[in-house]
Amino acid sequence: MSEAHAPAHPAPTGPATAQVSPGDRTPPTAADECETLGLVAYGQLAAFTQLAGDSRHAEDFDTCLQLAHLASAALAGQGAVLDRVTALGGDAAAQLESFVGSFDNFVDRTAPSTWWEGLLKGYVGFGVAHDFLRVLAERLDGPSREAVDAALASFAPDALAAEQLAAAAAADEVLGSRLALWGRRLVGEALGFVNDLLSARPALGRVLVCEPVPTTADPAEAARPPMTTARLFSLLTAEHSRRMGRIGLTA
Amino acid sequence: MSEAHAPAHPAPTGPATAQVSPGDRTPPTAADECETLGLVAYGQLAAFTQLAGDSRHAEDFDTCLQLAHLASAALAGQGAVLDRVTALGGDAAAQLESFVGSFDNFVDRTAPSTWWEGLLKGYVGFGVAHDFLRVLAERLDGPSREAVDAALASFAPDALAAEQLAAAAAADEVLGSRLALWGRRLVGEALGFVNDLLSARPALGRVLVCEPVPTTADPAEAARPPMTTARLFSLLTAEHSRRMGRIGLTA
């Protein structure tokens, strides 16, 4: 997306931590749910744009083709997410457009200087985004959750990047060290981005602290403590460490 | 796609007209069929790349989103086309990659200088490509034809561009005249591109002159004269004129 689209909600750049009060056990309002769905749909478009650009600059034809298909897959199910906004009484197009520009700060602050840095950026960035959106989705009502789950499932770029990154890091120790360092920088920026988003969008914070809708009779799930910003960041960090471990890098 | 992918079959730049002998009533060989399918699949990737780039530079958010979805749709069914190459004993990846760079000459010679020129380039270029591929597809065997038809059907950017171009040309007479002129330039380059492709790829010419596989009991179809290069170009030109007429411009 062009820089020409002015951000409707510029992300805050200050160091303030988003304040979210836990324990709100009521389900999210339709408006809060719509805003969450708008974020998911916009994330799909941002992923498409990123992956399509990566495809154009891929070093070999096979990667170019795979990235093009990943880009296409990123948009699959976006229609269902936006339809759900409409069904909840929201303005789908306006909701989507309200997020324009809100990812720019993260994108600009993590400009990769090599192909490998770019690949790791996608791996880490999409990973954190997936985990965050999944936590939010668990708190939406049934049809919304299904629409988000389908959208997230159709788009998992991990497979491609993980394999290539693991092989590259294993073959070149210096590259591996550099990428481990870059990964720490990336996750810091990604968590900062999530924090900025929660600050700029109180609706997302309200969804976050809602009790998750139980999908199983698992007593462990029922016993989970309510979500807080701190607990969210610890969850995102733990998932990131596991993800880095899968490609042989220290988080 | 990056310029870094060297063309395996550089298109000829000379003025020679492709020589195709009509009247070969035998069905295409599997190898010729594979090459045709490779062209279709590569055209899908080229369309994806073009539309994704246009999406990034769209003037408004709605167009950006629509172009992103058109880009994604352009790749739909590519897997089925490539699977068909494999089923016919071909090397799908190699077949696809063999076309890398073969569209560059057309793309470079028709660099648009405005948004409207770019939109018309897509409208004219994709239109001619669709018509050409459909003529080839009619001469493939059943499963191949179905795979190509599905790929072409999932990707029809005309609707978006036609509406916008017609409105713009109607509202601004000077723009309309300029676009009509640009359209003539574009179709000339597109037909030259088809001619270059037929020269560089004898397999495509052999498919072209095969008797079409009848899909209906229509006696008019059975009575059609065999295809020649001249007849192909007259058909492509006539379709182009109709297409320009639909947006209110003289071809």
Automatic annotation (TrEMBL), chains A, B:
It comes from the Bacteria. InterPro entries: Ferritin-like, Ferritin_actino. Residues 1-30 are annotated as: Disordered. Residues 36-209 form the Ferritin-like domain. This is Ferritin-like domain-containing protein. It comes from Sanguibacter keddieii (strain ATCC 51767 / DSM 10542 / NCFB 3025 / ST-74).
